[in-house]
Amino acid sequence: IRSVASLRNGGVVIELESERLALWLGSTEGRALLEGQFDSAVSFRNRTFPLVLEYLPIHMQLEQPEFLRKIEQENHLPPDALTSIRWIKPPLRCSQAQRKAFALLQVSTASCAN
Q: Would you say the C-alpha torsion 23, 25, 28, 29 has a positive or negative sign?
């Protein structure tokens, strides 16, 4: 373990020495062993990397579940590389004349973000 940080909400962030160890702790076996060391429930949250997408046409249906999978296929990205997307300002709050807006895309790995 490289470092441990306590959060205000009672959570803990653990930074590990290697990606191999992080993958192992993410496995069923690693999770079970780590959870056995704590008195309370343990939940894992994977880090995501936010990207701002500029000037997307407002008519794009970002909310549709298959939207991210289609983008992954068209760009030859691994499955589930894109975790979520949302408009920064919802189109309903935009003016009638506005045709483009910004969106926030969450990506699962730094390599996909770059």
A: positive
